[in-house]
Amino acid sequence: MTNAGPPDDELTALFGEERAQHVFSDQLRVSVLRGVERAILLAPAVIVGVGAAAAVGSAGAAASKAWTTKVVITIAALSFGVGTAAGVVGTKVLTPRPRAAPIAVTSATAVRTAELPLAPAPPNSEPAPEPATPPPPTAPSARPPATPASAHGAEASPSTLARESEIIEKGRTALARGRAADALAAVDEHKRLFPRGRLGEERDELAIRALRFAGRSDEANARAKEFAKTYPSSIYLGTIEAPER
Amino acid sequence: MPGEEGTRTSLDAGFPAFFAAHFDFVCRSLLRLGVREADLADVAQDVFVLVHRSFGTLDRGRHPRPWLFGFARGYASNYRRLGWHRAGEILDDHRGSSQRLVDKIDARTRVARGLAALDDDKVTVLVLHDMEGLAAPEIATELGVPVNTIYTRIRAARAAFKAALAEEAS
After folding, report:
1. Is A21 in contact with B108 (Cβ distance < 8 A)?
2. Residue ranges of the alpha helices (H) in B54-132?
3. pLDDT at B67 over 60
4. What is the per-residue pLDDT for B76?
5. Which residue would you say has higher pLDDT here, A208 or A213?
6. Which of B147, B119, B79, B14 is nearest to A234 (CA)?
7. How far B78 CA sits from the closest chain A CA (Å)?
8. Do residue B8 and residue A233 have CB atoms under 8 angstroms apart?
9. To which H or E segment does residue A12 belong?
10. Which terminus of chain A, N or C, has less C-beta within 10 A?
11. Smallest Cα–Cα separation from A31: which of A160, A147, A124?
């Protein structure tokens, strides 16, 4: 199908080797996510002017501002699950209004960070301890914060998220190389290990593309329909619905 | 626009998963584009802040990776321009050692150096098509050019990339 064909053996070998050398740690992932979260909380309206902004549609400014708040909640909730600021969060996460807690906590983090002169966390380093945080009012030591007590907590920890991502990525790579069966195997693996995982949407999208690639169009169409119902605003709707161009 | 308001709530919720799904890709892209490993966390953070700001305008009919690569490329070019001395140091380091220890240079360095010799159009197709496995039509859609142009670019990019590798080795 690809008119350009695959790269020759030399390039294929080099690209394969190069790809395998890119390994990113959970720590890096978490620290970057925290940094994004901080940046958004600190300066929601300021856009750093770089060339990349060219990729942004002009209509975007108004819209993105409108939902900054909502997204902040989401991100706070994630880094929460990932165990940053675990000491404070550990007790508050079980309060009746879980969404309220992350905001308060992260704002505190952000304010403290604001006092530092533009010093994002160094890569691959432990997040700094947070001594300025006052202990929670009640029973601070009753609940060890880092313990994933429930299955839900386990699915949100950084290593499981990384593991999820790894499986999906493996499937995507397989599909990109034309190995639909391996991609579907990764889909099954993810479904088995993370039935309620965070990357369910990515998994389903991969499954549909793999089925299409394998020529199982009826299944792909049925699942695409299901997908559109489950994720009506998914960014993947275009990639799963469009048949071969 | 107002009609979309209702759907945005769930899209918001999609951002962390989106981050998790594409974090590695963005990091790979940045390193390939000449960002130093030591700067990766800072640069990746900045890129995702920008991505987040326009997350709501992401065209759902398109594959997100060419879109993300646009951010990485824009940011990396800024990075190279503003921190040229640092990028230069790295290249010089490797160039010095390449003459002695050709086998020891890792594939990442070779790729980044080869890509540094190409123009933006060629880098984009080589990374997205040959290294990330995206289909040419997807890339064509994102770039707004005919798919045949993409095929032509892919072939030209491979040739230029190999020429750059050969030059490095000599």
Report:
1. yes
2. 64-82, 84-98, 107-116, 120-125
3. yes
4. 86
5. A208
6. B14
7. 7
8. yes
9. helix A9-21
10. N
11. A124
Does the pLDDT value for residue A56 go beyond 70? no
pLDDT (0 to 100) of residue A85: 34
Across the range B48-59, mean pLDDT stands at 81
Retrieve residue A117's tokens. Answer: 């002169």
Domain locations along chain B: 12-169
Min Cα–Cα distance to chain A from B29, Å? 10
Q: Determine the average pLDDT of the residues in A178-201.
A: 90
> Which residue type is seen at B52?
H
With CB atoms and an 8 Å threshold, state whether A18 touches B64. Answer: no
**pLDDT of res. A42:** 62
pTM value surpassing 0.90: no
Residue B170, amino acid: S
- Residues of chain A in contact with residue B134, where contact means CB-CB under 8 angstroms, are 176
Looking at the predicted structure, is the pLDDT value of residue A80 above 50?
no
Pair A33, B19: CB distance under 8 Å: yes
Take residue B124 and report the two structure tokens written for it: 């984009």
- Tell me the pLDDT of chain A averaged across its residues: 62
B72 to chain A, any CB pair closer than 8 A? The answer is yes
Distances (CA, A) of A23 to A173, B24, B28, B133: 15, 8, 9, 18
The DSSP call for residue A84 is T
For B:109-128, CB contacts with A below 8 A are: 110-111
Burial of residue A231 (CB within 10 Å: 0-12, 13-18, 19+) is: buried
